[in-house]
Amino acid sequence: MTGADLALFQMIKGAHLMNSRVICGALAALGTLSSGAVLAAGLATVDQRGLSFGVSSLSVAVGTIVTFQNSDTTSHNIIITGNGANLNSGLQAPGVAFRAPFPKAGTYQVICGIHPKMNMTVIVK
Amino acid sequence: MHGNRGAAAGFLCRLLVSAAGLIVLTAASLGNAGGEPAMRVDQGSAFFKDYQRPSAIPQPEDNPATADKIRLGKMLFFDPRLSHSGVESCATCHNPSLGWQDGLAKGVGDNGGTLNRRTPSILNMAWAGPMQWDGSASSLETQALVPMMSATEMAGTEQRVLALLNNVAAYREGMASIFPSQPITVANAVKLIAAFERTVVSGQAPFDRWLAGDASAMSPAAKRGFVVFNTKGNCAACHSSWRFTDDGFHDIGLPGDDPGRGQIMPGIIVLDHAFKTPTLRNIAQRGPYMHDGSQATLEAVIDHYDHGFIRRASLSDQVRPLNLTAADKADLIAFMNALTSEDPPVTLPVLPR
Q1: Shortest CA gap B123–chain A (Å)
Q2: Are B320 and B238 in contact (CB under 8 A)?
Q3: How many CA atoms lie within 13 A of B254 on its CB side?
Q4: Residue of B nearest to A52 (CA)
Q5: B72 and which of A15, B44, B174, B334 could share a cystine (Cβ 3.0–4.6 Å)?
Q6: Do B237 and A113 touch (CB under 8 A)?
């Protein structure tokens, strides 16, 4: 790839080329999810690509931390609601992972606030 | 790239698939002023697949289309008796002669009052996400209902709509046939309107023919514009897919205090002053532009994105100074003109009395 090509590539992909960064759902903001649950029961990852979540539904055990990985070239803003939760990732730039703990059993709706056609369900058992 | 094109400069565009599997649109100066980008349309690539038209109109499970639904829905869409005054129909604002809009900067309500936002087109709504500029209607059925019952728009009432549906034999008998064993309801009436609206689909445009392999379907300027659209112009960041919209909501830095999507989903910074990305299909025929109708021409729209936006906390991170040249802008216009389809005239229904 030439220097000119690289410059264009960077222009197109923008922050996608940056090192992967992580936003963690702050526990203080998760009071509505549950404040006392064990959070390390498991890990799961959901890819965000092509303005879509990689799965439409995800079943996890109580306490699982789900990582939402923005593999798109545009920013997202994850909103998690349901079962008393109201979690907002804030702006999630390309390349950035958002980690959300699910310490309470129930069904949660996950959407991108910017692209609401992008939605999925997390079922915590 | 294009911005630095001098008298002896041109460019060659290539689509490459990197080792990581990313589709990368690249350009390199070849000294061919105003020339044609040597693009290879790889119809198997994800990049181009995203621009390809779907083969069928999607249908909701709870309201699959039938010929009778579409026929009756079309009548209702054009029937002004649904409004309070009896003179404003859905088609008054969504006029097929004006790109299913009204050609005005702001919509006009049944009482003659000016609405807060421009009338959006209903073109290709079968594929759309949340409807309205602020996404307040979750389905096309809801979208059909909201303006009908809005006091500032058609100012209809359930009583008035039901009276029309019950008193006009063609509506009464048609609904009884389509929805057997069900009472006549406004909810079923808007299902008919939505079924008709899903048939409002833009036809093949020069861009589609070029994508399908007809290299002569788009002018060299339009092809260059497609490159700018996907690279320097950053247009495709939001105007993506075959409809040229991500069905998303973005603050593009227009002045005004309209909260847009922020009023529907408060507390999310990037949704303040955010409005739905409109489709660019047939865009050259659908001015004025923006949610507030503030831009009279596509040239003005491009200038806005190039340097005319307001910087604020909610501004989309995709909106940034572009430093487009006059040639870039002309090429973008040429490309957007290539999104215009030559659709047959819409036949108006004869309304039953």
Answers
A1: 18
A2: no
A3: 22
A4: B246
A5: B174
A6: no
Nearest-5° Cα angle at B84, B81 to B87: 50
Contact list in B for residue A17 (CB cut-off 8 A) is: none
Q: Which of residues 16-75 of A touch B (CB under 8 A)?
A: 50-51, 73-75
Mutation target vs B (from A12, A13, A109; most B CBs, 10 A cutoff): A12
- CA A91 and chain centroid, separation: 11
For residue range B161-193, what is the model confidence (pLDDT) as tens digits?
Answer: 999 999 999 999 999 999 999 999 999 999 999
Distances (CA, A) of B201 to B57, B90, B342: 9, 17, 12
A112-124 pLDDT, tens digit per residue, is 999 999 999 999 9
Report how far residue B155's alpha carbon sits from residue B108's, in angstroms, rounded to the nearest whole number.
Answer: 12
Please report, for residues B6, B56, B202, B222, the alpha-carbon distance to residue B30 in angstroms, rounded to integers and kept in the order given: 11, 41, 37, 19
ipTM, 2 dp: 0.83
Cβ burial of B165 (10 Å; 0-12, 13-18, 19+) is buried
Contact yes or no for A118/A52 (Cβ under 8 A): yes
pLDDT in tens, B253-301: 999 999 999 999 999 999 999 999 999 999 999 999 999 999 999 999 9
Q: What residues have CB less than 8 Å from B231, skipping those under 6 apart?
A: A8, A11, A12, B1, B25, B27
Of A4, A88, A90, the CB nearest to B28: A4
* Whole-structure pTM value: 0.86
Q: Distances in Å between the alpha carbon of B143 and those of B21, B64, B128, B137?
A: 40, 17, 11, 5
CB contact under 8 A, B246 and A4: no
The alpha carbon of residue B253 is apart from the nearest alpha carbon of chain A, in Å, by 15
Locate the chain B residue with the closest alpha carbon to A88. Answer: B268
Cα→Cα distances B37→A56, B237, B323, Å: 39, 21, 20
